[in-house]
Amino acid sequence: MNSIHALEVHDLTRTYGEGAGAVTALAGVDLAFAPGTFTAVMGPSGSGKSTFLGCAAGLERPTGGRVLLDGQDVTDWNENDRTRLRRERIGFVFQGFHLMPYLTAEQNVGLPLRLAGRRHDRARIRNLLDRVGLGDRARHLPDALSGGQQQRVAIARALVTDPAVVLADEPTGALDSTTARDVLGLLRDSVDSLGQTVVMVTHDPVAAAYADAVVFLVDGRVAGRMDRPSADAVAGQMAHLDELVGALS
């Protein structure tokens, strides 16, 4: 019996520009993520990490290849369908937060429910804010919050609809070490307790150690994988990415 992956991409390519000036961000990526798993995606700057997340979430159209969610090919869906997909089945944590400046923290977290026409579940929203340490900031606007606090609101917002897949682009980049541990623990718990699938782009070996596996991207291609990662092992591999580049040659 074939198992259905929560998310999978086949021969995924993304090229920007044309002719001699074309830049290939993804060059035939094949990856599959099982339900209830936590995967970190790492690689040097320009390796295609954020582009991969954008294509997987339907924020960008790939140049070639396929994107499947729960076994369903969503690659060629129109913009309305892709928007609904992100609203109902994918939670996305942006590196730049993307909070609505005129909404409070509580209202920002509840916005996906409102857009999906679902009941405003205040208890769930407050619980998520408590879990990211912002229960006492529920009525604050984003400009009254620090960068780290805004990121935690963004993470709570990504989890509020109980999505099957959570895609996070550097979710701890703006956080201090204590808050980062709390946020990573929340993502880990969403996998272990709720069965969600988390795919997280990160540059931090300590953050990657919270994952079940690490996938390394180099020059837009999958260059390696590490299961049951430790921070030291990940840091060691990141220090020798030239060897992964050599393996692709």
Overall structural class, as computed from helix and strand content, comes to alpha/beta
CATH architecture of the domain at 1-89 and 195-249: 3-Layer(aba) Sandwich
Q: How helix-rich are the residues, as a percent range?
A: 25-40%
* pLDDT averaged over residues: 90
What strand order characterises the main sheet? 6-7-8-3-9-10
CATH class of the domain at 1-89 and 195-249: Alpha Beta
The helix tally amounts to 9
Overall spatial form: globular
Major beta sheet summary: 6 strands, mixed
| Whole-angstrom Rg | 18 Å
Total beta-strand segments: 10
Q: What's the N-to-C terminus distance? A: 36 Å
Order of helices and strands: EEEHEEHEHHHEHEHEEHH
